[in-house]
Design a protein that fits this description.
The protein has 473 residues and is of the alpha/beta class. Helix content is 24%, strand content 21%.
């Protein structure tokens, strides 16, 4: 009888242990599932967000006429406009006599951009490579470098790719699928020649037009290696599957999407609104509850005027103007795709070059060496500031490889007499910069605290850092 009771007790205990293990495994599985549901970047998106700056290079037929989208129009197509160097219908008008793409990379490297995008074809329809695509009658496309009568006979894109590779910079191409003035397609892809077809223009059916565009992007997405980023403006016209098939590793595709911030001014807080920006979900601010990773970017110009292609007598933004733009874009977790407007010589304008280099130098000087920093996993982080050091800003970064996990947090400072708020927000993401209202001087016990009060999983902080005041501000 005692043996039976002992056996029964042991059996019950064994069953309870098994049940406890099963419940624990179920809870662990549920927790793992929750973590699995956290949106994370693809390798292409993580590569994209590993830089503050991308060089968005505008250099095409519009450089030799005027800015626009398209830059070609009835005022310059079959006549030499006063502002242009020739007829924009003539491939010979694209004639950068001092073209030196290696000179571009002096400014790209100086800025600190590690991805560069070149306008392979913009709204005019002119191509910067010797395309083998043909018109329906079998004749050459005819409106590109290397074409009969073109001033430039070599492959500008190949030169660009070679220079990017030599400089360790990722590269990609901008190609406007929907718009092509040469082939009578407007910004939205509609027929722009319903009333008049100008000399040198060609007007085809939509199917024929799409076949030409498909042939050209197939060349771009096949002949120049692995692209880091693809820019397609105004629509994909059914070519999204081809894009993903030929360039699966590139960002800017349906497989690896990015999201626009809603303005090209450089001041998204003013134009779109202040507040938290998420690397998940669509829309200008993103959506913290989305299961899709979608890095956000802003694309300002260096010109004070809203101009992409180089024009004479415009005003260039100064370093003092670019610093607030940096904080409003990069400091809120976005990537800055900054315009490079190559001039008619084929060079970075001598008035532009020092601004790119000064901005890059300023970022490295300001945020390259923190007074003190920490990193790790958890919900609270502390920084002890060296006595006598002055500081006026903090920078926080999540390790976005594991997702954007933080949902609410605060930064506080104490010198031994309680905590004073420095900043409070919801999103961190790839980078968040907070400028303090005034400069502080650390005492013997000055401490900053990062308190992560709400997160969907254990926060992984790549950097929590405090910095001294920056020059040129």
């Amino acid at each position: 009888s005692g043996t039976s009771e002992l056996w029964l007790t042991e059996t019950m205990l064994d069953n309870m242990a098994v049940l406890t293990i099963l419940i624990g495994m179920a809870l662990l599985s549920e927790g793992s599932a929750q973590i699995m549901r956290i949106a994370t970047p693809t390798p292409a998106q993580a590569r994209y967000q590993d830089t503050d700056f991308i060089a968005l290079i505008h250099f095409n037929m519009g450089t030799f006429a005027h800015n626009g989208d398209p830059c070609c129009d009835p005022t310059n197509w079959d006549v030499k406009a006063p502002y242009a160097t020739g007829k924009t219908s003539d491939p010979a008008t694209f004639n950068p006599t001092k073209l030196n793409i290696s000179q571009w990379f002096d400014s790209i490297n100086g800025l600190g951009a590690n991805i560069a995008i070149l306008t392979a074809k913009h709204g005019c329809g002119f191509g910067l490579w010797p395309t083998n695509s043909t018109l329906p009658d079998g004749s050459p496309y005819g409106y590109n470098v290397g074409a009969k009568g073109a001033a430039i006979q070599h492959d500008v894109l190949r030169d660009f790719v070679n220079n990017a590779t030599a400089n360790g910079v990722g590269y990609g191409f901008y190609y406007s699928i929907m718009k092509n003035f040469y082939l009578c397609r407007s910004f939205s892809g509609t027929d722009s020649c319903t009333k008049t077809v100008l000399p040198g223009q060609h007007n085809y059916t939509q199917d024929v037009y799409t076949k030409i565009a498909q042939a050209q992007v197939t060349e771009l997405w096949t002949n120049y290696g692995d692209l880091t980023e693809i820019w397609v403006d105004s629509g994909l016209d059914g070519l999204q599957d081809l894009m993903v098939h030929l360039q699966p590793q590139a960002v800017g595709t349906p497989k690896n999407p990015t999201g626009w911030c809603g303005t090209e001014s450089g001041h998204p807080s003013k134009d779109v609104g202040p507040g938290d920006v998420w690397s998940t979900g669509s829309g200008f601010f993103g959506d913290p509850n989305s299961s899709q990773w979608m890095p956000k970017f802003c694309d300002p110009q260096l010109f004070q005027e809203h101009v992409w292609f180089w024009e004479p007598n415009l005003h260039v933004r100064t370093l003092g103007m670019m610093i607030p733009i940096y904080h409003d874009i990069v400091g809120r977790g976005m990537v800055m795709e900054l315009a490079f407007s190559i001039d008619r010589d084929g060079l970075v304008d001598p008035t532009h070059e020092p601004v790119y280099k000064a901005l890059g130098a300023w970022v490295r000087s300001c945020y390259g060496t923190p007074l003190v920093e920490t990193s790790g996993s958890g919900n609270e982080f502390y920084l002890t500031v060296p006595e006598g050091a002055t500081f006026d800003r903090v920078q926080i970064q999540e390790d976005i490889v594991t997702g954007q996990r933080v949902r609410e947090y605060a930064v506080e400072v104490s010198s031994g007499a309680g905590w004073t708020s420095v900043a409070a927000a919801k999103a961190i993401g790839r980078k968040r910069i907070f400028l303090m209202n005034s400069t502080m001087t650390a005492t013997s016990n000055t401490t900053l605290r990062l308190s992560l009060s709400n997160a969907i999983a254990t926060p992984n902080i790549k950097q929590f850092a405090v910095f001294k005041p920056c020059p040129s501000e």
